[in-house]
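Reply to dn_fold:

You asked what the input looked like. This is it:
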Amino acid sequence: MADAVLHGAGLGFRRELIPDLKAGVSAAIDFFELAPENWAGMGGRSAKDLRHFTERFPFVCHGLSLDLGGPRPLDTELLTRIKHFMRQHGMCLYTEHLSWCGDDGHLYDLLPIPCTGDAVRWVAGRIRQAQDILEMKIGIENASYYVAPPGAEMNETEFIRAVIEEADCLLHLDVNNVYVNSANFAFDPLAFIDALPLERTCYLHMAGHYVEPDGVLVDTHGAEVIDPVWQLLNAVYARVGPQPTCLERDFNIPPLSELSAEVAQISNAQQRAKRLKKAA
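and this is what came back:
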């Protein structure tokens, strides 16, 4: 079983990358991330392929469908499957989006939660329930959104802080999501980050996005990371240190060599942050 200690720079684990990864994994890649919904319970070749890598590298589980903010009962069966899956492969971290994605069925989108006291209590209770089942603290990711829900009683950073404190969970900080939202809703991304409970940070995401003709940014994970997002990552490292950071790429997937080069940029930024801390 791979060492469960998580550090350094990682890459999203995609089936289409497996042949090239078997041929050789770049030294810049310290760990991988996967969506457990896409792998838990799989048998045959998929299970063998996954085992090949989990025996050699740490893996993070990043959920897609737990629906922490939704109205339906929490999917405890899914959480139980994830718990067994993580133990089977020696995985030490599970994160999910601070969003909702279900009603009568799965909506296949991550929708923003109204920033209200009632929502804080509802979501925090569901996070505590998830943590009890998984027997670990989980990381909650700040989500991208395109319409701000009405009826807000607090701003987004106050809401995130309140949920994390009420649930006693961790912060999964998605740097690109902060940048996308800041551009679409005209706020200072660094001030937003500074207002988060950074002391709870356990994990970071980096990704690219798409710019619509009207200037709206869409969090697609389908392009290279741009310079302002790299700069924002440097600012985050200056505040929280070089936390484990994963590159997400879900569409328009380029050759592994190009992805590895971006992961190496994350690793280089982490090393710079370490040097600056020593020099301070």
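DSSP finds nine helices and twelve strands in the chain.
Hope that clears it up.
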